[in-house]
Amino acid sequence: MVRRLLILGMVAGVLAGLAAALFARLAIEPSVDLAIAFEAARDAMPGMVHADEPELVSRAVQKGTGLLVAATCYGAALGGIFALVFAALHARVLHGGARVASAWLALAGFVTIALIPALKYPPNPPAVGFHETIQLRTAAFFGCIAVSLVLAAAAVRLAQRLRGRLGSFDAGLAAVVAYGAAMTIVALALPTIDEVPADFPATLLWTFRTGALATQAVLWAVLALVFGRAAERLLRDAR
């Protein structure tokens, strides 16, 4: 059963990745092109020292084949992990039918992996960020995701322990509040990184960031819908 759920998860992840790639092509790539143009114009200003670097991958490939391949590979990996977590939690933690459980799991994944880390370290387009701090920014971002996942798992355990005394709703609410409080402390403890140029267009920055977050929402939503429907049929036929 777990093997079949894993296959379903990977297939659902590929479809979710395709949907996310299409959305990103329409919602994010125009902002990326504008940001690159801004960076080129700034580097061309008198007094700016800029070493020309060869373009290893053309923009046409980046926003075409490259985006498609990256999104589908990421979606397949995410879908496989999603299916394994679903298989482990469905009977013990996630209640309701497979579609409902899949929706709740996807919502939790979106919040803990995409939304909360983005509030501390929002995605930035080209021309934002220094090369010297890329290792710090990468480590801080993935560290925030790792801590968020650990705290989310702890919140699930807390809800399970409190369910007998408080009931399902109040136990879940207490776990969410505890997770939010803990992540607030973590966010305050992590280094703040603000490298947005003073003259960078605020509208362009906002468009890119909201588009990136919306792309994640599309990815998780399609994954939940496709996997939930397929898993429901699989579990029904297995009875």
Automatic annotation (TrEMBL):
Keywords: Membrane, Transmembrane, Transmembrane helix. The chain crosses the membrane at residues 67-89, 101-119, 139-159, 171-193, 213-231. Coiled coil: none annotated. InterPro entries: CbtA_put (IPR012666). It holds the Pfam family CbtA. This is CbtA family protein. It comes from Sphingomonas ginsenosidivorax.
